[in-house]
Design goal:
This protein has helices spanning 12-23, 53-63, 77-82, 84-105, 141-158, 181-193, 215-226, 248-256, 285-291, 299-313, and strands spanning 3-7, 27-32, 45-47, 67-70, 110-114, 129-130, 162-168, 170-172, 200-203, 209-210, 212-214, 237-240, 246-247, 264-267, 279-282. The chain is of the alpha/beta class and 318 residues long. It has a seven-stranded parallel beta sheet, sandwiched between helices. It has a four-stranded mixed beta sheet with strand order 6-15-10-13. Helix 1 crosses helix 7 (215-226) and helix 4 runs parallel beside helix 5. The longest helix has 22 residues, at 84-105. It starts with a strand and ends in a 5-residue tail after the last helix. The structure holds ligand A2R. The site of ligand A2R has 22 residues, from helix 1 and helix 4.
Length: 318
């Protein structure tokens, strides 16, 4: 059993991962920036702003983790443009605060640093399945801050701290913010089914193709990584991707196939941001070959879970 410190425990991935880690009988210490009623009632959480070094020290000294899963971040590209300083501060200084504290208080701790496929940026324009060796050309403050944090993190690895970096591609599932396309579509369908929205679904650019993953498959990869012996890792960076892409149009069609309601599709100029990146695809050969991980969830099942989540959220009893 490991003592796992989990930052960002109230986030989309944090909630799903927390449950999975408990199922695996790990001792989990979730940290949240502020308390919320959507947290697990039987779990104790620590309030922690990772930008506050004293708070970080207090939590690390109290928990003395064997493992840290660092999810806490400003994770939205849109928000990173709105508040770049907060993004740089949280994603880099927050990470550095944790690493400095571990160096002093828990030097043997293994760190899973969760970066993002966004770091590849311009390199996606080749249209190829990118491996971890592709050049990183971030195109927004979020991606740039994650890449800078990767570079800073690697300095700690050089000094003997144990850990790896993962670059997850577009993961989706229940509980994701409607800033993300599947959640936005599913919520609108649920509102239409409940009679709370006219039968018109407003969409943006349907032409882009993305590498989608079920959040539970991403959590499986994290659980697998945490269960490995350090010597298993031949590399520092691992993509977490499905290895194939789907057009947003196809995602929409598959969601519409799961409702009996006739729905008109309308393009919303507000949502129509021509994507600079027509195709974003990642190779999962490295994590597959070295750790035996590959995604297991059927895409239709993932979409059903997202739609059912939004059906529950929009039900009159909510
Ligand atoms: O903003 P809140 O209160 O929901 O908390 C978010 C938390 N967070 C922080 N925690 C401590 N100190 C901070 N200064 C701070 N700023 C933000 O990080 C939230 O609970 C969490 C991020 O969750 P989501 O935005 O839902 O991201 P998601 O999709 O779970 O992604 C997890 C990780 C992120 O590092 C992504 O960049 C990466 O996976 O791909």
């Amino acid at each position: 059993m490991s003592r796992i410190l989990l930052t960002g425990a109230s986030g989309f991935v944090g909630k799903a991962l927390h449950k999975r880690l408990l199922e695996e009988n790990h001792e989990v210490f979730g940290t949240v920036r502020s308390s919320s009623d959507s947290l697990m009632p039987d779990q104790q959480y620590s309030l922690l702003d990772i930008c506050n070094r004293d708070e970080v020290d207090e939590v690390v000294q109290r928990v003395r983790p064997t493992h840290l899963v660092h999810l806490a971040a400003i994770s939205s590209v849109a928000n990173s443009f709105k508040d770049p300083l907060l993004t740089w501060n949280t994603n880099i200084i927050g990470t550095l605060n944790l690493m400095e504290s571990l160096k002093k208080n828990a030097p043997g701790c293994f760190v899973l640093f969760v970066s993002s496929s966004e770091v590849y940026g311009e390199s996606f324009k080749t249209g190829e399945l990118l491996t971890e060796d592709a050049v990183c050309h971030p195109m927004n403050p979020y991606a740039a801050s994650k890449l800078a944090a990767e570079i800073a993190f690697k300095q700690y690895l050089r000094q003997g701290q144990r850990g790896i970096i993962v670059r997850p591609f577009n993961h989706i599932g229940p509980g994701q913010s409607v800033d993300f396309v599947t959640a936005s579509f599913a919520r609108q369908i649920a509102l239409i089914e409940a009679g709370l929205q006219r039968p018109v679904l407003r969409v943006g650019n349907l032409e882009a193709s993305r590498d989608f993953l079920d959040v539970n498959d991403v959590c499986d990869a994290y659980v697998k990584i945490l269960g490995q012996d350090q010597s298993t890792f031949a590399h520092t960076v691992y993509n977490i991707s499905s290895g194939s892409t789907r057009k947003i149009q196809t995602v929409l069609n598959e969601l519409l196939a799961q409702t009996l309601h006739p729905i008109e599709i309308q393009t919303d100029p507000e949502r129509l941001r021509p994507s600079d990146i027509p195709v974003a695809a990642g190779s999962n050969a490295r994590i597959h070959d070295e750790l035996g991980w590959s995604p297991a969830t059927l895409f239709s099942q993932t979409l059903a879970s997202v739609l059912n989540y939004w059906r529950e959220q929009t039900s009159p009893s909510k």
